[in-house]
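Example record

One chain of 491 residues, shown exactly as stored in the release files.
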Amino acid sequence: MSAHAGPARTAGDATTWSALVTAACDHSRPAARFGDLEWSGRELLDRAGGAAAWLDSLGHPRGRSVPALVASSADALALVIGGAGSGHPVAPLGVRSTAKELAAVVAATGSPVLVAQPEFAELAQDVSALAGCRTAVIPALSPRDWSPRAEPQDVALVLHTSGTTGLPKPVPMPQWRLTARARVNGGLCALDADSFYGGSAPFHHMSGLGNMSVALAAGALITGLPGFSVDGWRLLRERGITHTSMVPAMLEMLLAAGEAHHESLRVLQYGGAPILPATLRRVYQSMPGVRMLNMFGQTEGSPVSVLTPEEHREAVAGRTELLGSVGKAAPGIELDIRAAGPDGAGEVYARGDHLFAVDDDGWLATGDLGHIASDGYLYLAGRKNDMIIRGGENVHPLEVETVLVSHPDVAEAAVIGVPDARLGQTVVAFVVPAHPGAAPDPEKLRTHTREQLSGYKVPVRWHTVDALPRNPNGKLLRRSLSEEGQVAQRP
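Predicted structure tokens for this chain:
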């Protein structure tokens, strides 16, 4: 089954992201505010000119990505803008990764140089030694005239996938496709020159630089933090941000701490997991005027689908089933479900201008399983590689997890398949108690699950854990879950 929301275009129809950013930042208003440092739009562009000149001086081949150890900062934004407009697309890497992990990624780029902010110089030296390249420490960027020289097909920047299933893969983002994404995402989030975007996602993530690239093209003021915490949220609130993004687990943390309130926040974008109806109600109680969006997508392309602010209001008014979906096709997106099984779930494919890792026909294979309901809403069933095959029956972890977290004794849940001599795989659940120190009763959870799902989908073993393993951006690391060292509860 397929659904669409507009025709696709070609590179010739679009301008460049560099041109959008240059036009949007050509002003004297604040454009970047990190700590005590504040640059106007023109100052940011002047530093981008300095970054471009410095990148040119490195002798790096034009058109090849430049791996970089940088964190959210004004300098990092200038480096990305300068790199995009000078043919040196920057590829930020995770500064919390180990030298061995980073070296494999850097070596795969084929770059002769790894650039790094001064605070990451030591790590960069270790990585360079392993990857067989040299290190260049980013200097204080001198202001230079800024005049981008980029064509629509040129790569603007490169982000890497999270690597939850192996070595992170590079995702080149052509200028014209990044332009399309800036327009689609910026329109959905109502980002403009009066907006103040602030986030805490790592700079190298799609929800880090990926979202900042949209805010830059809208001419919004930008700030950021190195990681998420309740104290960091307080700081963003004090700074007066109007737009942000996070995952539902972060919202739960803020609500538990009584710190979810934010008087100036206009738009809260989330993704990575569904939000519970009770959580949504509490968010609206804390921030009555906030507009909520659930955007489904990935590094390879986002947004694929959107659950709009109006649909969130409908959900809290009674249509709670909408929160089990990830909305309808985003503007300009065509959806298709391929190789659907007996349960109707197949792999989600998407086609649109603002998607990056597409095949020759423009289709992105998302790796997510799901189905499109008759009213156009997309419902996910989990990752293709996460699917559990128990006795020949398909079990989608996300479906089971959604049921488990609807139990009042469960705050979070994760389901995995483990080898079984008779059935091939069997289902095991890890649950985080809603009330610390009070482990949920497995028999009650089993009954709760069986009331809503077929028997073969019900977990056969249960583990109570303090927290689920997640990457710095809040994504569940399913492959890190193991029964080793855990004591299974078998009532």
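Notes: Confidence is low (pLDDT under 50) at residues 6-14, 485-491.
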